[in-house]
Structure formats: structure tokens, C-alpha cells
Design brief:
Structural class: alpha/beta
Distance between the termini: 20 Å
Order of helices and strands: EEHEHEEEHHE
Low-confidence stretches: 1-6
Shape: globular
Mean pLDDT: 77
Strand order of the largest sheet: 1-2-3-4-7
Number of helices: 4
Radius of gyration: 17 Å
Number of strands: 7
Length: 179
């Protein structure tokens, strides 16, 4: 989803689990779809530039669910996961970094958000089934964005205009452009 609100351009993703079986094509088809969306997002920014409606920043609203850690909810669930957890993390990090790099390359400041999600929970098999066994902030969604933040911090000359906001308790409200 790509929207412009009060001078900021937002890309918000929901259920971008990289292993979801995108219409039977698995991870490769999902990645093709996502990368096509990233290109469309970048093209949209360029169109806004050409029409003198350049946003003041790019907001990458990561709403979680970038990887799959949920199992046991329906019988075919495991058959739709074609990457192991480490591979999923690598792909998700690279996708997030691609979004940041595209915006930075185009001269935009960036805000990336992170919220904990059900797919990123630390789960274990309990007497009541697969349940979260830790706190909401012990979450892969937050961990992935922290890795991007650390990468950006290592190169402040390039990524000095990239900032991050986290929602460890499932709520994130940000004042953006005076909203």
C-alpha cells in the first residue's frame, strides 16, 4: 500500500511473509511480487518529484509478519514454507534494506517502523498448544528491523537521515509532519 499523507509518503506492508506460497509459486513468486511493488513505490516517488509534490520523507511502515514462525494452525502450513528460519531472516533483512537503499539513493529521509507480530513471536509447544512463551518484545519482527538499524548506524555518512521507531507493546503512534 502506498499513500501520501501530509507530505510524507508511506509504504505499509501487511502479511509480507516471504515464504507464503504466492499463487503456487512459493518464495520466488512472492519475491517477484514484492520487488515489483518496490519498483512501483519508487516509480511513484519519481512521479511525485516530477509533478513538484515531493514528499518530505519516506515512511516504511513495517507491520510485521515478514517471516513464518507459526505452525500447527492448519495441516498444509508446513508445506507452504520453503525456506528455513535463517533463510527467511536473510531474505527479510535484504528486502527491508532494499527499501531503505532505494529511498536513500533517491535523496529521501526515511522512517522505518517495527511492531511485534504473531508470526514473529517466540512460541513453544505448551499443554494448550503452540503459544507465545516470552514477552511481546521478544519478536523476530523487531529483531529484523534492529539489524537494519545497526547496519545503518555503521555507515552514518550514507544513512544519517534514516530513523527508526519501535512498538514493543503492539502500539505505535508517531507525530509525522505535525499530524
Amino acid at each position: 500500500q502506498c499513500i501520501t499523507v501530509e507530505g510524507s509518503l508511506y509504504l505499509a506492508g501487511r502479511d509480507l511473509v516471504v515464504t507464503h506460497n504466492s499463487e503456487g509459486g512459493g518464495t520466488p513468486a512472492t519475491l517477484d511480487h514484492l520487488l515489483g511493488s518496490f519498483t512501483a513505490f519508487r516509480d511513484h516517488r519519481k512521479m511525485l518529484d516530477r509533478t513538484k509534490r515531493r514528499p518530505s520523507e519516506v515512511v516504511i511502515a513495517n507491520t510485521g509478519d515478514l517471516t513464518e514462525r507459526m505452525f500447527g494452525h492448519y495441516p498444509s502450513q508446513m508445506s507452504t514454507v520453503d525456506l528455513n528460519e535463517r533463510e527467511q531472516h536473510r531474505v527479510a533483512r535484504r528486502l527491508l534494506m532494499r527499501l531503505v537503499d532505494d529511498a536513500v539513493d533517491d535523496g529521501y529521509p526515511v522512517l522505518m517502523t517495527a511492531v511485534p507480530c504473531n508470526h514473529g513471536e517466540n512460541r513453544g509447544n505448551t499443554s494448550k498448544g503452540m503459544k507465545a512463551i516470552s514477552t511481546p518484545d521478544d519478536n523476530v519482527s523487531l529483531m529484523l528491523v534492529e539489524a537494519i538499524e545497526e547496519s545503518c548506524a555503521a555507515n552514518p555518512d550514507r544513512y544519517g537521515a534514516v530513523r527508526f521507531a519501535y512498538a514493543p507493546n503492539h502500539v505505535l503512534a508517531l507525530p509525522i509532519d505535525g499530524i
